[in-house]
Amino acid sequence: MNDTKPILIIDPGHGGKDIGGGSNDIFKEKEMNLKISLYQYQRFQELNVPVHITRDSDIYLSPTTRTEIVRESGAIYCISNHLNAYKPEARGVETIHSIFADDTLARKLFQAIVAEGMLGRRVFSKAGDSGKDYYFMHRDTGSVKTVIIEYGFATNKQDTELIVNNWQGFAEAVVKAFCEYIGHPYSPVIIQPEQPIETGYPTNTPDWKINAVNWLYRQNLLTDQSWKGKVDESVPLWAVATMLQRLKSQLEK
Ligand SMILES: [Zn+2]
């Protein structure tokens, strides 16, 4: 957080006890929202776009607190990052703007995410009771122009793979599109993988599998590099026993 009046406030949806509906057995929505948001927060700072964030750790914010932070930030815009959930066949990115706003920014962010490889689903706004917005992030954020981004569906296999493998690409697409929208100079980064690229894994092995197996190597629970070529195969009983013995002796040190 900093004291400069921000142009933008980024809002990682959910947090703490509120895991978020856009979760599956690979990621929790609150965690993926935070990863995307912290990435954007850092990039906007690098690009000298004054930016705030509603939360930078895994804490619960009530709708009242969250919208108060947004209203009092002094920001002109808010981007609220989310992941969707619905029927298994439902796919694609959605951006949602206030019923009182035009759809220019929402459409620009939507198109940027589609250009990065996500299927486009819709850009929309939704009215609730008595002529107000349905979503509290629009209804209760005052004059801050808020766009909710649902990057894709955690309940859909293809969307999940795209998000796990390219969340940084989608996050960066939003950074670029927002800079263009406000007329701020943009320069790209070469996206660094979280871990150095490891050799030995089959091509197209997703990062989350590589990260999990690399952890075993870092802990010295697994030493033979040839296991990397067999990430999707089952491990023989003797290998499990060896890993458990190593773990036990490490814990006893
Ligand atoms: Zn959500």
CATH architecture of the largest domain: 3-Layer(aba) Sandwich
Rg measurement, Å: 21 Å
CATH topology of the largest domain: Aminopeptidase
**Contiguous runs where pLDDT drops below 50 for at least 5 residues:** none
Q: Separation of termini?
A: 41 Å
Helix content: 25-40%
Name given to the CATH homologous superfamily of the largest domain: Zn-dependent exopeptidases
What composes the largest sheet? 6 strands, mixed
Query: How are strands sequenced across the largest beta sheet?
Result: 2-1-3-6-4-5
**Total of domains:** 2
Helix/strand-derived category reads alpha/beta
Task: Kindly describe this structure.
- There is one protein chain.
- With 253 residues, the protein is an alpha/beta fold.
- 39% of the residues lie in helices and 14% in strands.
- It has two domains: 8-182, Zn-dependent exopeptidases (Aminopeptidase, 3-Layer(aba) Sandwich); 207-252, no CATH class.
- It has helices at residues 29-46, 63-72, 104-115, 136-139, 157-182, 207-218, 237-252; strands at residues 8-12, 51-53, 77-84, 93-97, 120-124, 145-153.
- The two termini are 41 Å apart.
- The model has no long low-confidence stretch (mean pLDDT 92).
- The chain binds zinc ion.
- Zinc ion binds at residues 13-14, 20-22, 29, 82.
